Amino acid sequence: MRGSNEFLVRAPTLEDGARIWRIAADSGVLDTNSSYAYLLWCRDFADTSAVVEIDGKVGGFVIGYLRPQQPGTFFVWQVAVDETYRGRGLGGAMLDSLMDGLAGQGVSTLETTVSPDNAASTAMFAALARRRGALLTARPLFDPGHFPDGHEPEHLFRIATAIDQEVGR
Length: 169
Prior knowledge:
Elements: E1 8-10, H1 17-26, H2 35-44, E2 50-54, E3 57-67, E4 70-81, H3 90-103, E5 109-114, H4 119-132, E6 135-142, E7 154-160, H5 162-167
Parallel strand pairs: 4-5
Antiparallel strand pairs: 1-2, 2-3, 3-4, 5-7, 6-7
Helix pairs in contact: 1-2, 3-4
């Protein structure tokens, strides 16, 4: 049996959908999608998503997709780790695993959006850029007026190598 410090990063399955939804709902910071949406992520976007399993239990997830207009760009929709397992670098481990796997498909850029007050996500993506020797740029993408529900602004974070930044990939 694996110890509590060991974990496995793997693609999600349909059976993980309910747990992923629960982690998102319990996060306190994510916009929780419908449970149906998480099942679709597990079915249709398993190649661009990941879960982290600890002692046989899903403890976190990353869901994302390849941008249709820029197939070399991986867009991260959500990252969440169950409160029990936070502070262990699991979000970064899932992102590294996904980027390593997607690199063979020509993916060299990661994009995501982060609200300005989300210090944990900002730190996680900054650390990811440092580990990968890449540049992180941030710019406003959506302001509160874009949202019908009083949502905070979202900044676009882009992590890419210097060459990818120059050519706008």
